[in-house]
Design a protein that fits this description.
Layout (H helix, E strand, L loop, with lengths): L6 H7 L2 H42 L5 H8 L8 H16 L5 H23 L3 H30 L7 H60 L2
Subcellular location: Cell inner membrane; Cell membrane
Keywords: Cell cycle, Cell division, Cell inner membrane, Cell membrane, Membrane, Transmembrane, Transmembrane helix
GO biological process, one term: bacteriocin transport
Amino acid sequence: MGQELSIWHLVSQASLFVQLIMLILLLASVVSWYQIAQRVMYFNQAQTEIARFESRFWSGTDLNTLYTEGGDKRVVMGMESVFRAGFKEFTRLAKKKLDSDAMMEACQRSMRVALSREEEAMEHGLPFLATVGSTSPYVGLLGTVWGIMGSFHGLGQVQQATLATVAPGISEALVATAMGLIAAIPAVVSYNRFSAKVDSFAGKYDTFSEEFSSILHRQIHSRD
């Protein structure tokens, strides 16, 4: 009885096509968990960087000093990336005699590009999780249907059809559906959670961009 109910036994007894389906689902699940772990670390780091940079930025530190300090870091992300993009453009154009509105537009454009890059970085891996979450149940169901078809085909070749004859094949096929759900559920839950984080962080970055634009606007017009 223990062997009959063993998952490994059911997998080994399944047809080659069903085993291939199970392997695909297993690989999808492994990659999903890798992406999940990576996203968790990324968003934890992003949250830490937001708190650190906001504290430093709003403490009254000179912007030139803050910009110079950021240049020593190998990885710049989040608000600091938006800040550096805007301030770099500001310092570059400040040396030229340009119209104030043109300078402001250039700084805002640079920050929008940086913001777009940050959003792309946050969304990395999410399309894969969405794909796994939406397709895995159907892939598993395909393996189950194929396995059940094989079981009934074999059933038609025996003289006496009993439940004991077809049950093992159906049990093996149903493992594919179970694996599809096991792969899909964490992917769907994680995708929804990370999507909410992307919206939240993007909103914070966008708000900071507008606030920093106001600061640059005052500095640009103070030169006139």
